[in-house]
Amino acid sequence: MLSSTLRCLRLSSFRLVLSRQLVHHQPHMEHSGSRPVETTIRTKLTQSLTPEHLEVLNESHMHAVPPGSESHFRVLVVSPKFEGLSLLQRHRLVNEALKEELSTCVHALAIQAKTPQQWSSNPSLAKSPPCLGGSKHDSTMAEKLKAGRD
User: Fold this and answer.
1) Quick one: which H or E segment has residue 140?
2) SS3 (DSSP) at 53
3) Angle between helices 36-49 and 2-10 (to 10 degrees)
4) I need a labelling partner for 111 at 20 to 30 A (CA). Which of 15, 53, 73, 99 fits?
5) CB neighbours of 127 closer than 8 A, spacing ≥ 6?
6) What tens digit of pLDDT does each residue of 65-80 get?
7) What is the C-alpha separation between 60 and 111, in angstroms, rounded?
8) Beta strands 53-58; 23-24: pairing state
9) H/E run at residue 8
10) DSSP summary character for residue 56
11) d(Cα 74, Cα 9) in Å, to the nearest integer?
12) Tens digit of pLDDT for each residue in 108-135?
């Protein structure tokens, strides 16, 4: 738990690439340490659900959070372990795998949990709607965020 908290505290020192492509999971591919929460999400979902396809998208830049934040994510998990399970049961499996992150630094997690058959008939990742949170459209938010870093 302490390591997750420390990862969350160190995030302000990392830069956010706003136009980053979706990252497709490839088991042989190592990810840099500059996205510790994203990397942890990918690792835990891979270990617990052995997905055939995994996408992890950091959507924090779409919300009123400091640059470099890792607080809002969308995941697409395609796993045979979802066969015969309801959507609610699938989401519970994902939430269980990420319970530590959800209780510390991940504020929001959008989940698409598909079976391999569902994925083969519709291989797409849903898009998130624009953030309508009160502070996102607050014209003084940039100043407030800057003041919070000083």
Assistant:
1) none
2) strand
3) 140
4) 15
5) none
6) 777 888 889 999 999 9
7) 15
8) antiparallel
9) helix 2-10
10) E
11) 21
12) 899 999 999 999 999 888 887 777 665 5
Q: Which of 87, 92, 82 is nearest to 54 (CA)?
A: 82
Tokens in use for 7? 């990862």
The pair of three-digit structure tokens given for residue 122, joined into one six-digit string = 């519709």
Q: Which two three-digit tokens encode residue 94?
A: 């994902």
36-49 helix and 87-97 helix, angle to the nearest 10 degrees: 120
Yes or no: say if 70 and 60 are a contact pair by the CB < 8 Å rule.
Answer: yes
Q: d(Cα 27, Cα 40) in Å, to the nearest integer?
A: 14
- DSSP of 69-133: ---EEEEEEE-GGGTT--HHHHHHHHHHHTHHHHHTT--EEEEEEE-HHHHHH----PPPPPP--
Q: Which of 59, 28, 27 is nearest to 45 (CA)?
A: 27
Q: Distance between CA atoms of 109 and 132, rounded to whole angstroms?
A: 16
Per-residue pLDDT at 129: 73
**Could you tell me which residues are beta bridge partners of residue 110?**
74
- Nearest 5°: the CA angle 70, 113, 30 is 50
pLDDT confidence bin for 13, thresholds 50/70/90: very low
